[in-house]
């Protein structure tokens, strides 16, 4: 994929010239019309066509990539309300959805809205298979730019742990946060989510060792994080002690 970087300032969609909106509408109508004539004319969730190239949307928007990104975001979320079909987010083609989200991010590299809807809209439906697709998409984007997308992977940790009940997946995401999200903009609670996941998995001893290693490393300088870790190791030591006592009985 080609990434485009522009100097235009972000602005509300209402400020987008009418000519830009019309041009984008024409491009989308032509795209979806061509897709429709290839199949029987029955509206269904699979009618979500693959996106065109980023360059095409840039040209169609008359050189307004950020406006194009905003327009595509709104259009995509309204797709389930198309005439002649009753389509829920549960029915949509999720691998194809990720293509549209990618296109929107390419048009507006500084934007976070596609990641927000991946985490909080499409990733919140009660369909574990499709939730996993969205969480893995977030994980993929995180690996591209960890210090930019860390907050969305933190959300994926919570989704995996509490909604999918998949502690191994939650630990995988939490481990990636600890290892890769090392920027000063990343708060300690995100980097230390691995400790909480291990504790909830019943891996209390492993969590205790991890906390001890972090404290002993002398690399933690944030006083709030040190206080958190010190308190956490005391809690974990108490749990280990209780577990040992229960085994001895």
Briefly summarize what is shown.
This protein is an all-alpha fold. 65% of the residues lie in helices and 0% in strands.
Can you walk me through this structure?
With 249 residues, this protein is mostly helical. It folds into three domains: 1-111, no CATH class; 112-191, no CATH class; 202-249. It has helices at residues 18-37, 54-60, 65-77, 94-107, 113-120, 128-144, 146-163, 167-180, 188-191, 193-200, 204-216, 223-248. The termini are far apart. The model is unreliable at 1-13 and 32-43 (pLDDT under 50).
Biggest β-sheet strands, sense, barrel: none
Helix content: 55-70%
Q: What's the order of the H and E elements? A: HHHHHHHHHHHH
Class of secondary structure makeup: mainly alpha
Quaternary state of the chains: single chain
- What general form does the structure show? elongated
Distance between the termini: 61 Å
The number of strands is 0
| Low-confidence runs of at least 5 consecutive residues | 1-13, 32-43
Please state the CA-atom Rg, rounded to the nearest Å. 23 Å
Mean residue pLDDT: 80
Question: What order do the helices and strands come in, and which of them pair?
Answer:
Layout: H1 18-37, H2 54-60, H3 65-77, H4 94-107, H5 113-120, H6 128-144, H7 146-163, H8 167-180, H9 188-191, H10 193-200, H11 204-216, H12 223-248
Please name the defining characteristics of this protein.
mainly alpha, 3 domains, 249 residues, elongated, 12 helices
């Amino acid at each position: 994929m080609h990434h485009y970087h522009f100097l235009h300032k972000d602005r509300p969609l209402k400020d987008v010239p009418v000519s830009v909106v019309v041009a984008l509408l024409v491009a989308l109508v032509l795209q979806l019309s061509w897709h429709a004539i290839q199949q029987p004319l029955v509206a269904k969730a699979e009618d979500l066509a693959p996106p065109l190239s980023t360059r095409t949307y840039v040209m169609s928007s008359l050189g307004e990539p950020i406006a194009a990104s905003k327009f595509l975001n709104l259009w995509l979320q309204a797709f389930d309300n198309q005439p002649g079909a009753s389509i829920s987010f549960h029915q949509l083609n999720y691998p194809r959805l990720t293509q549209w989200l990618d296109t929107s991010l390419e048009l507006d590299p500084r934007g976070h809205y596609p990641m927000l809807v991946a985490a909080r809209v499409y990733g919140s439906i009660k369909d574990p298979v499709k939730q996993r697709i969205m969480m893995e998409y977030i994980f993929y984007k995180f690996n591209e730019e960890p210090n930019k997308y860390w907050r969305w992977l933190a959300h994926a940790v919570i989704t995996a742990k509490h909604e999918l009940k998949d502690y191994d997946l939650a630990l995988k995401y939490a481990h990636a946060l600890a290892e890769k999200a090392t920027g000063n903009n990343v708060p300690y609670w995100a980097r230390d989510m691995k400790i909480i996941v291990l504790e909830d998995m019943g891996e209390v001893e492993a969590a205790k060792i991890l906390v001890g290693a972090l404290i002993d490393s002398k690399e933690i300088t944030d006083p709030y994080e040190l206080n958190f870790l010190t308190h956490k190791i005391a809690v974990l030591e108490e749990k280990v002690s209780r577990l040992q006592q229960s085994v001895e009985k």
